[in-house]
Design brief:
It comes from Hymenobacter lapidiphilus. Pfam families: AAA_5. The chain has about 600 residues and is an alpha+beta fold. About 40% of the residues lie in helices and about 15% in strands. A five-stranded antiparallel sheet has the order 1-2-3-4-5. Strands 7-14-15-6-16 form a five-stranded parallel sheet. Strands 10-11-12-13 form a four-stranded antiparallel sheet. Strand 3 and strand 4 (about 105-115) form a beta hairpin.
Length: about 600
C-alpha cells in the first residue's frame, strides 16, 4: 500500500521555511544537525521513494540518488534530484530527472542532459535537443506543494510513469544523437593528445642559440602551446595568456651567478616582524611553488575519487569561509561534541584559535598545516600537535565532502571521462648563467620524464627542510633559454644536459611568408664571416635587424654602431682588424672614428 501524501503537513511547513530562507552555511552545531535531519526526512527521502516506486513500474530503468544534505558551496540544500536512465544506455548524456526544486518551490520531472552545453563540438546538437524539448512541452513538468496535499502517491507515480513512457522514444533519439558526438569528441581529443605527445616528448626543453635569435620571445609562444594545446594565432595572444597565468600556471625566472637552491627550491630568508625584529623564516622558492600547484591539480584530476587529495588551498578556503566572509568563528570538534576549539583569526602565516575550556589563544602555522595535510611531514609529540591533528582531520573530511559533491565537475564535457590535468610551465631565462648543480640539487633526478609523478618509474626525495615525498608531476614543463655566445660562464653539466631536449634557434633572413628582411644579404654575409672566424654560436641574431611595426624603422648604421659593432668588439677581444674583417663582402663600409678610435659604419642609403 502506497503512502498517501508526498509532503506531510510538517514536511510542507519545513519545506516552505527552507525555500524562503537564504542558503545557510553549514556550521558544527546542533541546529545544523537538526536541519540536516529535516532535509533528509522531508526533501531527500520522499524524492528517493518517488524514484523507487517509478522504477518498480519501469524495470528497464535504473536510478541514481543524491543523498547529500549540503551543496557544493557547503550550504544546507534546498533541493533534491534523482536521475533515472535506461540500463542499456548507462548514466551518460540524457536522463529523466525528478525531484524537489527549492528555488521554484515545486516538484518537477523532465528530460535533462549532463554534458554538451559547454562543449563547442556538441553545441549545435544540444541546441537541437533544447529545441526538441521545448517543442515537446516537457522542459519542466511541475507540481506545487499545495496540490500535493490533494495528490496521493499513486497519482504522482502514475503520472510520472506515463510521462516517461510517452517520451521514451524522444529520450532514445536524443541519447543516440549525443552519444555519437561524444564518441567523436573523445576520438578528436585522443588524436590531439597523441599529436601533442609526439611534438613534446620531453617536458624539459632548452632553446639555445646566439643572441638576438628570439629565444625569450619564443618561450611565450611555446608556453602558450603547452598550456592551450595549440600554437597561438599571434604573439599578442601569447603575451596576453602569459600575463593572465603568471603566478598561476606560469612562472618566469632569470638565472644569474648568485642564484641558488634557496631561491629555487627552499631556503631560510631574513624578515622583519611586526615588532621590528629581524627573524629568519623558511621560504619556498619559485620551483617549489609551481611544482606544488601542478602536483595538486595532477592528483586532483588523475585520482578524483581519492579522499584527501584535493589541493590544500581549496579545502582550507572552505574551512575558513565563515571566518573570512562573515567574521564568524569556526568550531572544530575534538573527540566528542563536548570538546571543541574555535578558529578565530587568520593571517598570511598563521591560523589563530581559542581553547574552549580556558579561553587561551595560540597560533597554528599555515605551512605546517599544509605539510601535514599533504602528508609531507608527520606529527610530533606534545605542544600544539593535538590541535594541528584535529584541524587536518577536519580538512580531510571537507576534502571528502567536496570530492563527492564535485566529482562530476572533473568529468570531461561530452565524454563522461575524467579531464586530464592542465599543464604548468616554468620559464628559466639564461639557464646556464647559474651554477646548475647548486640550483637544482637533488631535483636533477626528478626532472626525467619517467621519474616524475605519473611516469613509469616515479621517484620522490626528502628535502633538506625534512619535507618527505617531494616529487615533480608530469604536467609541469620547464623551458630554458641558453645564449651560446656567452662563453664566460659554465655550460650545462652532462647530468642536466641529458635530461633536456635542445632546440636550436639560429639567425633567419626572411619573414614567415618568405619575404626577406631588409639588408638580408649584408646580414647573411656578416654571419658567414663571423662563423668562419669564430663559430656559428657567435652569429648576430635577426632580432637586431627586424623592424617593429609600432615604431619607426631604425637606420641600419645606428643598429650596427650601437648594437652590433660593440658586440663584435667583445667577441674579438677588442681586435679592430678582426672586427673590420667580418664586414668583408657585406657591402657595408666600416671606418675608424677619429674621435673615439672605434670602428663605425657609414650611413647606408
Amino acid at each position: 500500500m502506497m503512502p498517501k501524501p508526498f509532503f506531510t503537513a510538517k514536511g510542507l511547513e519545513f519545506f516552505r521555511k527552507r525555500i524562503t530562507e537564504k542558503p545557510i552555511a553549514v556550521r558544527d552545531n546542533l541546529q545544523d544537525e537538526a536541519d540536516k535531519e529535516q532535509i533528509r526526512a522531508h526533501i531527500i527521502s520522499p524524492s528517493n521513494e518517488w524514484a523507487r516506486l517509478v522504477i518498480e513500474a519501469l524495470p528497464a530503468y535504473e536510478v541514481i540518488q543524491d543523498n547529500r544534505v549540503q551543496s557544493g558551496f557547503g550550504q544546507l540544500k534546498q533541493y533534491s534530484w534523482v536521475r533515472l536512465y535506461l540500463s542499456e544506455f548507462g548514466d551518460e548524456g540524457i536522463y529523466f530527472r525528478l525531484g524537489v526544486d527549492g528555488k521554484g518551490s515545486k516538484l518537477t520531472y523532465n528530460i535533462d542532459y549532463r554534458w554538451g552545453a559547454k562543449n563547442p563540438l556538441l553545441y549545435e546538437e544540444t541546441q537541437r535537443i533544447d529545441s526538441a524539448l521545448k517543442q515537446s512541452g516537457i522542459t519542466d513538468q511541475s507540481i506545487y506543494p499545495e496540490s500535493l496535499l490533494q495528490y496521493d502517491w499513486s497519482r504522482l507515480v502514475d503520472e510520472t510513469v506515463s510521462f516517461i513512457k510517452q517520451y521514451e522514444p524522444l529520450y532514445r533519439r536524443l541519447h543516440t544523437l549525443l552519444n555519437a558526438h561524444m564518441v567523436a569528441t573523445k576520438k578528436a581529443k585522443e588524436d590531439a593528445h597523441a599529436a601533442f605527445a609526439a611534438k613534446f616528448p620531453n617536458p624539459n626543453i632548452i632553446l639555445y642559440g646566439p643572441p638576438g635569435t628570439g629565444k625569450t620571445h619564443h618561450t611565450l609562444e611555446l608556453a602558450y602551446e603547452l598550456l592551450m594545446g595549440e600554437p597561438p594565432a599571434s604573439y599578442a595572444l601569447a603575451q596576453e595568456l602569459f600575463q593572465q597565468e603568471l603566478g598561476k600556471r606560469v612562472e618566469f625566472v632569470t638565472f644569474h651567478q648568485s642564484f641558488g637552491y634557496e631561491d629555487f627550491v627552499q631556503g631560510i630568508k631574513p624578515e622583519v616582524n611586526d615588532k621590528d625584529q629581524l627573524v629568519f623564516k623558511p621560504k619556498n622558492g619559485i620551483f617549489y611553488e609551481i611544482a606544488r600547484r601542478a602536483r595538486d591539480e595532477f592528483n586532483q584530476q588523475e585520482q578524483p575519487d581519492r579522499p584527501g587529495r584535493l589541493p590544500f588551498d581549496i579545502v582550507f578556503d572552505r574551512l575558513v569561509q565563515p571566518l573570512e566572509v562573515n567574521g564568524e568563528e569556526v568550531v572544530v570538534k575534538m573527540k566528542t561534541d563536548k570538546y571543541t576549539f574555535q578558529l578565530i583569526a587568520l593571517t598570511d602565516t598563521y591560523l589563530r584559535f581559542r581553547r574552549h575550556e580556558n579561553k587561551t589563544e595560540s597560533n597554528l602555522k599555515l605551512d605546517t598545516l599544509r605539510s601535514l595535510y599533504e602528508g609531507t611531514i608527520g606529527y610530533k609529540q606534545g605542544g600544539l600537535q593535538l590541535y594541528y591533528q584535529y584541524v587536518v582531520n577536519r580538512l580531510k573530511e571537507l576534502a571528502d565532502e567536496i570530492k563527492r559533491e564535485e566529482y562530476s565537475a572533473h568529468l570531461q564535457v561530452g565524454t563522461g571521462e575524467v579531464a586530464p590535468p592542465r599543464n604548468y610551465v616554468l620559464i628559466i631565462d639564461e639557464i646556464n648563467r647559474a651554477n646548475i648543480s647548486k640550483v637544482f640539487g637533488e631535483l636533477i633526478t626528478l626532472l626525467e620524464k619517467d621519474k616524475r609523478l605519473g611516469g613509469d618509474n616515479p621517484l620522490s626525495v626528502t628535502l633538506p627542510s625534512g619535507e618527505a615525498k617531494f616529487n615533480v608531476p608530469a604536467n609541469l614543463y620547464l623551458i630554458g633559454t641558453m645564449n651560446t655566445a656567452d662563453k664566460s660562464i659554465a655550460l650545462l653539466d652532462i647530468a642536466l644536459r641529458r635530461r633536456f631536449e635542445f632546440q636550436a634557434l639560429y639567425p633567419i633572413y626572411a619573414q614567415a611568408d618568405g619575404t626577406p628582411f631588409q639588408h638580408a644579404t649584408a646580414f647573411r654575409q656578416l654571419n658567414i664571416n663571423i662563423s668562419e672566424q669564430k663559430s656559428r654560436d657567435f652569429q648576430i641574431g635577426h632580432a637586431y635587424f627586424m623592424d617593429r611595426p609600432d615604431k619607426p624603422a631604425e637606420p641600419l648604421a645606428d643598429i650596427l654602431n650601437k648594437k652590433v659593432i660593440p658586440l663584435l668588439y667583445e667577441y674579438f677581444l677588442n681586435d679592430a682588424k678582426k672586427v673590420k674583417a667580418v664586414f668583408k663582402d657585406t657591402g657595408l663600409e666600416v671606418q675608424e672614428d677619429q674621435a673615439t678610435g672605434l670602428l663605425r659604419c657609414s650611413p647606408v642609403v
